[in-house]
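anyone else get weird line breaks when pasting these?? whatever heres mine. first is seq + tokens for prot A
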Amino acid sequence: MVRWFVFLWLALGNASASAYTLTLVTENFAHFQYVNGEGELTGPAAEKVISVLNEAQIDYLISVDNWSSSYNSAKRDPNTCIFSIAKSEQRNALFNWVFPIGAFTTSFYALKTANISIDSLEQARQYKIAVIRDNFSHQYLKSQGFVEGQQLLLIQSFERVFQLLATRRNIVDLVILSDAQFEHKSKSEPMSSELEPVMTIDNMYTQLYFACNKKVPSRVIDRIQAAYERLY
């Protein structure tokens, strides 16, 4: 279910800015941004985005959905921006990359009882790997020759990882996750104690960004970037 959060910042004396409303799309991606128990969007990425748009005096709506829906909305819809999105060669030309949010690392995780040990992508090819549809890891592994339906099992959200492990653990050997996301989830998800990292992907230390559809007006992009530079 999509949750909407409305924030309106009226730019006094600047009708051209205040008349434009951005749609922001995101996912639950703790610890960077997530909906807490009170239904509020929180986390350092969300706080940074909100503070920058507040400073820029841009009106906006925020939608929280699974990653694939948010990602495809940002590619398709002309007044839409997305966070937190990893920048990659495959995505570079698709968006305007407005400002950085933070960096993250990614690892393969396995059940401790499986006794899996790998130290290369080549060794990982022999296993069934759960990966979130359309996220950075999914696109990266595809670029390295991993095939959907063979090595890759596509899931819609991070929470689905633990559902799979609880009910159908025989169909997946590895999951590929953000280390920060796993660390945050381990504080509240008992099943996380059954997982262990088996290999960190060295060249997947990457920056997360606030990025916008190419059709967002340049005056809006400039206003947001100027606000970011004033604050950070």
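and prot B, same format (seq, then tokens)
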Amino acid sequence: MNASTDNRRRRVVTPRRATDAVIHAIKGDILSGQLARGDRLPTERELAEEFGVSQPTIRECLRVLEAIGLVEVQHGRGAFVTGDVFTIIDTSLHELVRAERVGIAEVTALRETIARQSAAECAKQITKAQLAHVRDLEQKLSDVSSAGSWSEVAAAGIAFQTAIAEAASNPLALAIERFLIETSIKFQILAFSSRPRKFWLKWAEEFRADRAELLAALEAKDGERTVSAMVEYLDHQRRRFSADPALSKLRLADVLDSNV
């Protein structure tokens, strides 16, 4: 989908801060939904005319937007929107905690605080379609825990946990919780990447009973039981994380600076 130039007004920016102003304006269009993920931005020439700046200035702005994950510039095709508000929150959280000596214990503790509320809301609001989706993801996680690769186990774990957070219908909490879920998995990948496949499969299988209880609580639409099941699931993770020397000694900066 292209962002039509017919619907875009000419905008005037101050030359001294032209780059910042253009970046701010395009970022605002993306975060407001005016430009959606997958949309193609107007051409460099069209953007230059819209903002009254040179094409090299627009090119510089697109490089910055690409660096923060909001657009992708494809040679010969143009620039496409690849991010949204979740991208900004994720990037901001990364920068906020990069300098702190945060470990997986702190990540799990914060996740438990947020997950209590999202689990309660999920139990009240989850639809039949969402419940079926969570059930399918749990089955997939159980299947790959028996016969999959470590990368499949990691991806399935993220999908299962994120689906529950999504069903709570709180976009801000979802953005933070998704960051924490993915970060927790990245901690594990970094600590366990050199361990044999058998270890990964056993590791994922260890939490199967927790997932089953969480799913049963959601199916019963029992908020108190769902919160209790989520807390036990995360507490079980915390205990196991703390007991593994390689995992417990890692800090968030190690994860963020890695290629995981």
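btw re prot B: The first strand starts at residue 71 and ends at 74. Residues 104-125 form the longest helix (22 residues).
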